[in-house]
Amino acid sequence: MLCKSAALLAGVLISGVSALDGRRRSSVIEDDHGIDWFPCSGLDAKYSHGDELNISCGYYDVPLDWADHSVGAASLAVVIYPATKKRRGTMYINAGGPGYSGIEFLLQYGPNHIRKAIGEHYDFVAWDPRGVGHTTPGPPSCFHTAEDWEAYFNGTLEETGLDIKGNLTDDDQLYKFYSHVPEMERKYRGLGKRCAEAESSKTLAYLGSAAAARDMVALADYLDPGIQELNSWGFSYGSMVGFIFVNMFPDRVGHVVLDGCMHPLLYATRPITEYYLNSLESSEETFGGFATGCAMAGKNGCKLVQSDSDTAADVALRIRGMLDLAHDLFEFGADLTGTYTSAQAREHLYNVMATPLLWSQLAEEMHAYGKDLTAIAANTTCSRALSMKQSDADSDIGPPTYEYVAILCGDSVDAGNMSMRGGFEAIARASKYVSPLFGPQWHIGVHMCFAWPARAVERYTGPWDSKLKNRILIIGNSVDPETPFGNAKLMADLLGHNAALVRQDGFGHVSVAERSSCITNIISRYFEDGTLAEGSDATTCPIDDDVVLFPNSTVA
Ligand SMILES: *[C@@H]1O[C@H](CO)[C@@H](O)[C@H](O)[C@H]1NC(C)=O
Ligand SMILES: *[C@@H]1O[C@H](CO)[C@@H](O)[C@H](O)[C@H]1NC(C)=O
Ligand SMILES: *[C@@H]1O[C@H](CO)[C@@H](O)[C@H](O)[C@H]1NC(C)=O
Ligand SMILES: *[C@@H]1O[C@H](CO)[C@@H](O)[C@H](O)[C@H]1NC(C)=O
Ligand SMILES: *[C@@H]1O[C@H](CO)[C@@H](O)[C@H](O)[C@H]1NC(C)=O
Ligand SMILES: *[C@@H]1O[C@H](CO)[C@@H](O)[C@H](O)[C@H]1NC(C)=O
Questions:
Q1: Which of 62, 165, 212, 326 has its CA at a distance of 20 to 30 angstroms from the CA of residue 179?
Q2: Ligand 1 centroid vs 106 CA: distance in angstroms?
Q3: Within 10 Å of residue 152's Cβ, how many Cβ atoms?
């Protein structure tokens, strides 16, 4: 969570504002309560590959406010991937983010990863949560156009990212960094006001994780009437929705998997600024794995290696050198159009840490990036190698939408307990104590809850140790750059005997980041007959031998 890397897991990010299409149902819930399924290509042409697998989409209406049905209705965009053998039930997927489309996630991971683990006997169902994708209310918008946004944030941290040299621990840089507090406080207060005045503000209070848990239960009551036990797999931020679900509805717990886990106590009961430090806990170690794997592969196997005697430290130093050079060029006013700024390159590095299967490609990109920078430095821009920044060329990008912020801040503790200064301090502390490489990043969601105009009408803040109808399975990767293993352990500890903990002994974010037949087998057996290991010690599962991140390198 707290990053865009889940975009890699969820495929392409949600495509801004979705036009209302003719299939959208009227929003009178007392009306027909059913779902009229249609091929998902009817929702978006990019979903057409699901049509031949009988993956279908539809809308399901729920009350905006579960405690007051008179407020109106939300219309959830739902996707179903039917069982291909004798049906045993339904498995509900909670995708990451917050703010990622469940439909997109299921279309990307349902037919391969999830089908492999859960088998052919379950329907898979996912949906775009409130405030996301094709659901109504859709993504909150606070600017009319991208140009409005650009003009508003022009030249601020929001636009440039955090462009620093070294590691944001020396006094000069810190002084300069903190000097932005008043400006950003003003900008975010202004943004909060804009969002409060926008059309989408009317429904902000009905977005959030507790509502998502209730929506899932309502979907299950409709699709499997009379069946008490609900099955679910929550990935990344989806683990938070899942953890809320099991604690809010302990009697409804069937087979539930939480994978790549959030820290529930920090998320629900502490200022979200503090969350930033937790999310980065294993990020430095992940980068260490990348550098080690690259160095082991040698000159032929990893482009960032210059001589076969290079160590991981040499590779890491080379990358830090690029970030510093890019920063110097930026400060100097060099034209970096067509490549990454230092801030962008750092974010890109962090994002790809989540997906080790892309590390080898990342090494090639960084190699090319180094060449780009050298060329710019030498003022020979014509010899640019490979541009890393192709997508920015897209001209008609709409204004940013705020689904991530809306859900995060909607769930968050009251705004009065947070400040802009607190966000800056979180970055400085993360840089000093948690990750010198990835701490210095600017993530809006962490920083603007103090100015966000709404909180969810329902926020679940515990208890977290409910006695569950069935035991659940909690999965954490040993070295996950976004959701450290300790979070999975914490969830398991909170639930005691009600949970079994499994460690996937590899890198990346959530278990689908690499491949472990051991994990797949544990999940399959669990869904087959409920079997889970006893005891509170984590079972450890190795990554499959055929997972190769770099040639001739054993890092996985
Ligand atoms: C899709 O559904 C039809 C009708 O139920 C069935 O005949 C066909 O085998 C299904 N195709 C797949 C790929 O599951
Ligand atoms: C941003 O500010 C610069 C000057 O600082 C100005 O030249 C440019 O036109 C501004 N861009 C927008 C979109 O307002
Ligand atoms: C930050 O950089 C300085 C100067 O390069 C170095 O001495 C220090 O150890 C670094 N701090 C961390 C936490 O890496
Ligand atoms: C991997 O190692 C083998 C045997 O040591 C060697 O023949 C091969 O060239 C290496 N491949 C790469 C990409 O370095
Ligand atoms: C390259 O050099 C020319 C002439 O000195 C200068 O005008 C231009 O701004 C330089 N380009 C970059 C990218 O620094
Ligand atoms: C701050 O948080 C406490 C609980 O931790 C809450 O009781 C209080 O209302 C909050 N204060 C403000 C101003 O939001």
A1: 326
A2: 18
A3: 17
